[in-house]
Structures are given as C-alpha cells and as structure tokens.
UniProtKB/TrEMBL annotation:
The lineage of its organism: Eukaryota, Viridiplantae, Streptophyta, Embryophyta, Tracheophyta. This is Dynein light chain. One of its GO terms (biological process) is microtubule-based process. One of its GO terms (cellular component) is cytoplasmic dynein complex. InterPro entries: DLC_sf (IPR037177), Dynein_light_chain_typ-1/2 (IPR001372). Belongs to the dynein light chain family. The keyword Cytoplasm applies.
Length: 63
C-alpha cells in the first residue's frame, strides 16, 4: 500500500460512509496500479453500489 493521506474533497456522506470510502480506496490501491485512476474509482463505486445500493459516483485523480 502507498503511504500518504487520502483526501475527501467534497461530500455530504455520513462519517461512517466516508471511512468506508477511504477503506475501499486503500483496497483499490492494493489491487490496481496507482496511476490507473479509472480502475481505482470503479472499484470504490462498485463497493458502494454493493453496500449502499446503486447510483454512486466516484472520481479518482492524481493530485
């Protein structure tokens, strides 16, 4: 896993959901290349769709 801090820039999600997003992002970084932002965002979205129902959007970027 990469060292560093993830950042949630803008959300109206509950704190618990934000923590889940960070955990999903960490897992995605273990599974995908760090520069593959599409796969990382897709992983997080799919995790949220499974846990909270469909309709989620996720954006992942380098700085």
């Amino acid at each position: 896993m990469l060292e560093g801090k993830g950042k949630i820039k803008e959300t109206d999600m509950a704190e618990k959901m934000q923590m889940q997003a960070m955990a999903s992002a960490s897992e995605a970084l273990d599974l995908h290349d760090v520069f593959d932002c599409l796969s990382i965002a897709s992983h997080i979205k799919k995790e949220f769709d499974k846990k909270y129902g469909s309709g989620w959007q996720c954006v992942s970027s380098q700085k």
